Amino acid sequence: MRRFLRENDLSLVMFGIFAVCLVGQALAGYRVYNAEQAENGQAIVDGLAYLRTGHFIEAVFENWESEFLQMGMYVLLTVYLFQTGSPVSKGLYEPEEVDADSRGHADVP
User: Fold this and answer.
1) Coil, helix or strand at residue 48
2) For residue 103, is it within any domain?
3) CA dihedral in degrees (20, 52, 55, 50; nearest 10)?
4) pTM exceeds 0.85
5) At what angle do helices 67-80 and 2-39 cross, to 10 degrees?
6) Where would I find the H helices in the chain?
7) Considering its fold, how many domains does the chain have in total?
């Protein structure tokens, strides 16, 4: 299990951040949507019904347009986290040339 986490920590963290943000967006949007519905004298909806409304779908697609934030997080996280088989991740278990200090000693975590 520990090896799996080490080899996939970049993906796990990014998917975790995505899930937390999507749930937060759904909860906030649900409150706003129902407040608007009540204000206009229309019926309020439950949480699952809200996920099928155009309000939620539009909000999700608008947030996907914020690619700069997503890419920035990806770049920053790849400095510290690894993904097996990823061309942007260094090897997990063997030292790389870039890890050597000026005296030629490898600095392996």
Assistant:
1) helix
2) no
3) -70
4) no
5) 160
6) 2-39, 47-50, 54-64, 67-80
7) 1
